[in-house]
Amino acid sequence: MKVMMFGWEFPPHITGGLGTACFGLTKGLAKHGVEVLFVVPKAYGDESQEAVRLLNASDVTIDIDKEENRTYWERVQYMEIGSNIIPYVGPEQFEKLNEESFLQSESDRSPVFSQHYEFSGKYGSNLMEEVARYALVGSALATQHDFDVIHAHDWLTYPAGVAAKESTGKPLIVHMHATEFDRSGENVNTQVYAMERHGMEMADRVITVSNLTRRTVIEKYGIDPRKVFTVHNAVEPVDKSDITLPEKGVTEKVVTFLGRITYQKGPEYFVEAARKILNKDQNIRFVMAGTGDLLNKTVQRVAQLRIGHRFHFTGFLKGEDVDKMFAMSDVFVMPSISEPFGIVPLEAMRSNVPVVISKQSGVAEVLKHALKVDFWDVDGLADAIYGLCHYDALSDIFIKHGKEEVDSLKWEHAAKLVKNVYESIFL
C-alpha cells in the first residue's frame, strides 16, 4: 500500500508535537509495508528519509492559467481568506504581527498564483496564503504520483488533502491532532473551524488521537461517528548512548513544564501551583521550557508573586536539548486545559521522570503510572508535585513502572491501527 501524506513539518524542523508524531507514524507504517510519500511545504535537505520519501512543495511549479488548475481554484476559493491566527509563533513576533494590518484577502494575482512559490515552511503572517498555495500544489502533486490513500495531518493540510481527493478520486483520511476548541477554547476562529469541519466532512475516515478528541469531533463538528476512529499516539524509542547528558548542577529538586506557553497548555496553573509549593518549601526550582503568546504574561506573573529566584525560562527546546532538560528534572508537569493527546509526558517517562498530567488530556486515557489531576485544581496539582519531590518511594514507583509502561507504547502498534483504518475503506 502507498500513501500520499500531507504535513506541515517534519523532523528535525519542528515547532511542536505534530512533526514528532508524523515522524513516528511514518516509521511505524514502514514496518507494516506501507510506503509513504510525505509532502512538506519546505524541505531543508536534512530531514530523515529512512522510512519516508519527502516531496518538497516548494519545488513544484504551477501554471495557474492551465484549465485544470483554474478549475481547481474555483472550487477552493473559500480558502482565500485573511486571518490573524498565528499558531506556534513566539511572543515578540506575535505582538509585532498583531500590530500590522496586512492580513488581507489576496487578489486573483496574489503570490499564491505565481508559477513558482517558495514556502517558508513556518507559521507566520502569510499562513493562509501558504495554506491556499499548498492545496493547489497538493492537487498537482496528486496527479503526478501513484498512491492508494491520501492522509492529511491537522487543519493546515486538510485543504491539500481535499484537493488531492478531488483531482484523483482517491480516498481521504484526515488526522485530527488538535481541534480549534483545544487551541482557543470557546473563542474559536470561525474560519479555521470551517476548514476543519469541511476537511472532516469530505474525508472517508477521520482519525483522532484520543477518545476525548473523538467526542469533540462528533459533538461540536457534527461528524458521523461511524467514520471516526481513535488511534492513540505513541513515543519513539531512542538510543541515548551517544548523547552526553549534563550533571544536574543544583541540589534542589527541579520541576519542569515543557511545551507551548499558550492558553491550551495551562501555564498559569503551573505558576500558581509553584507559588503554593514555595510557600512550604523554598528548596525547589521550577523550569518553563517553551515559548508562546502567554510567555510575557507568565513572566510578569512570576515577578508579581516574587518567586522569580526559583523560576527559569529556557525558551523553545528540541532534540537533544529536551533530553538534557529531562536529565536534570525530578518531576514533569503537564497541566493542560485541553490536550488532545500529549506526547511530552511519554518522553519524560521514557527518560525516567515521573509525571503529573491533567485529566483533561488524551494521554490520560492510556497511562496508569502518572498522577492525574483536574487542570483547574491548583491545590491538587501542588500536592501531586510536592509528593513526588518529597517522597522517594512514591517517585521511585512511578519511575520504574512508568518506564515499563511507556516502552510498550510503540509507534509500530499505532501504525498498525492506522493501516487498519486505511484498509477499512476498501472493504
Taken in chain order, the helices and strands follow as EHEEHHHEHEHHEHEEHEHEHEHEEHHH
Q: Strands of the biggest beta sheet: in what spatial order? A: 3-2-1-4-5-6-7
Q: Considering DSSP H and I runs of 4 or more, what fraction of the residues is helical?
A: 40-55%
Q: What fraction of residues sit in β-strands?
A: 5-15%
Q: Give the low-pLDDT segments.
A: 60-64, 71-114
Query: Based on CA inertia axes, which overall geometry fits?
Result: globular
SS-derived structural category: alpha/beta
Q: Kindly provide the name of the CATH class of the largest domain.
A: Alpha Beta
Q: How large is the count of helical segments? A: 15
Provide a descriptive summary of the structure in words.
The chain has 427 residues and is α/β, with parallel strands linked by helices. It has two domains: 2-91 and 108-234 and 411-424, Rossmann fold, CATH 3.40.50; 253-407, Rossmann fold. The chain is 41% helix and 14% strand. The chain contains 15 helices and 13 strands. It has helices at 17-30, 67-75, 91-99, 127-144, 154-168, 180-184, 190-202, 211-221, 267-280, 295-304, 320-327, 344-350, 378-390, 392-407, 411-424, and strands at 2-6, 35-40, 53-56, 149-153, 172-176, 205-208, 228-230, 253-258, 284-289, 311-315, 331-334, 355-358, 371-373. Strands 3-2-1-4-5-6-7 form a seven-stranded parallel sheet, with helices on both faces. Strand 6, helix 8 (211-221) and strand 7 form a beta-alpha-beta unit. Helix 5 packs across helix 7 and helix 12 (344-350) crosses helix 14 (392-407). The longest helix has 18 residues, at 127-144. The radius of gyration is 22 Å and the shape is globular.
